[in-house]
Amino acid sequence: MKYGFCLLFCLPLIISAQNTGKPFKLNGTVKNLKFQPEMVYLQYQANGEWKTDSTVVNENKYTFSGQLNEPSQARLRVKYKAGENGVKVPMSGTRDIATVFIQPGKIKVSAVDSFSNISVKGSDVHTEYAALREQEKPFEERMKPLIEKYREYGKAKDLANQNKTEEELEAIDKEKNEKVYAEYVITNPESPLALWALKQYAGWDINADKVEPLYTSLSQKNKDYPSAADFREALEIAKTTGIGKFAPDFTQNDTLDQPVSLSSLRGRYVLVDFWASWCGPCRAENPNVVKVFNRYKDRNFHIIGVSLDRTGAKEKWMKAIHDDQLTWTQVSDLKFWDNAVAKQYGIRAIPQNFLLDPEGKIIAKNIRGEELEKKLAEVMK
């Protein structure tokens, strides 16, 4: 399920004062844009942290500099000057964002006619990235009409056709990942882009059996990148939370601040459901979960919801539970993405769930709606 998620990667970027690594300098130029650019923002990752920087556009030129200890996928955004009659031009939309891979050294970025229409010199990694993007385009073209159908079915509340379309989209996405990203890692394990390509292939729900051999094949230089340590940690967690593994036990406080352990629910089929009151896709899925719970709650089935709500947001969490009629066990430490259970399970997107058998073994992951109901019907024959 890839088309309705709240992702950890969408969090606001962190400004870090720490600077280690080798220097880079990005010189940018713009030409023939519809509006006059005023500011450009650069967002990238360094030393395992996200950074953001900004600079003024002067005579259609701008410059950024910093330190990098590995290639980084960066995003450039533009802010335009006030339009006619003092009307502000909106801060960048999709068309006003450019993606560029930066690396130590001097990089030149030129935008002509549109800020996103860029050419890049001085970054070998970007050249390889651009080639990969070209390989992705045929798959994206196949997905476009399906995405439109998916949205139309959603507006019409045609869940059956929406689910069918989602399955088609996921099949194309899986084919793209295998033929573009996995193949790239297999044939280019020494490339400085290989680790990034592997991350794209792995996605937020890592299949350790498929991903670990590819990670092992990477060059030592790739494995020494700072971001590789985080990826390796995520991979190790995925090895403990795959189908067939016993779900890691945890204890967290419920809405009455009483500790509840997962092991206390042993003997029943249990759905461990990660969600949050602020997560739109989670709230949209809740009616389906309520339906399944009401149908199977008297048949040795229970749910424990783990909320990634923020510190100080207990009232919002409680209100969402009440509004969505979630009558099963709910726990949270109200630490947002730092929720201890979420980190223990390697959660990087929500909603996510794990279905456990009465012995505590994971028998399914990330199943929703009809798929969840079918699985329960299958195991409870």
Structure description:
- The protein is of the alpha+beta class and 381 residues long.
- The protein folds into 3 domains: 6-122, Immunoglobulin-like; 126-240, no CATH class; 251-379, 3-Layer(aba) Sandwich (Glutaredoxin).
- The chain is 38% helix and 26% strand.
- The chain has helices spanning 124-155, 159-187, 194-202, 208-217, 220-224, 226-240, 280-296, 314-323, 340-344, 369-379, and strands at residues 6-7, 22-31, 37-46, 49-56, 61-68, 72-80, 97-102, 105-112, 118-121, 251-253, 259-261, 269-275, 301-307, 329-331, 349-350, 352-356, 362-365.
- The chain has a 5-stranded mixed beta sheet, covered by helices on one side. Strands 5-2-8-9 form a 4-stranded mixed beta sheet, with helices on one face. A 4-stranded antiparallel beta sheet has the order 4-3-6-7.
- The two termini are 26 Å apart.
- Integer-rounded radius of gyration: 23 Å
Characterize the main sheet. Answer: 5 strands, mixed
Determine the number of helices (DSSP H or I, runs of at least 4 residues): 10
How many strands appear in the DSSP assignment?
17
H/E element order: EEEEEEEEEHHHHHHEEEHEHEHEEEH
User: Helix coverage percent of residues?
Assistant: 25-40%
Strand proportion: 25-35%
Spatial order of strands in the largest sheet: 14-13-12-16-17
Runs in which pLDDT lies below 50 for 5 or more consecutive residues are: 9-19
Which structural class fits the helix and strand makeup?
A: alpha+beta
CATH topology of the largest domain: Glutaredoxin
Fourth-tier CATH superfamily name of the largest domain: Glutaredoxin
